[in-house]
């Protein structure tokens, strides 16, 4: 079993199930994510906030949860995460941005 699949215990069940059933696919997906992450100059907190903004813009609650979890693990201030939702208001609209804020708080309030 590859390292990427061994780390799937922390994945949401659906992603973990896919990784366990199709380890080669998961390994390639993880490698693509790593390559994209290392392809440019954005680092640290900035990278976490950008990834959160992309998840918010895509309207994916699961992705928002995942990126909030990772950002908090990296020491990003929860208020910076909430600011991403506020910055989204003029772009994705008030109702969607409020939804994103609630998704952020789902995780940030539990930490």
From TrEMBL:
Any Pfam family matching the protein: CMD
InterPro entries with a match to the protein in the record: AhpD-like, CMD-like
GO function terms (MF aspect): peroxiredoxin activity
Residue ranges annotated for the Carboxymuconolactone decarboxylase-like domain, each copy included: 24-105
Protein name: Carboxymuconolactone decarboxylase
Organism: Halorubrum kocurii JCM 14978
Lineage start: Archaea, Methanobacteriati, Methanobacteriota, Stenosarchaea group, Halobacteria
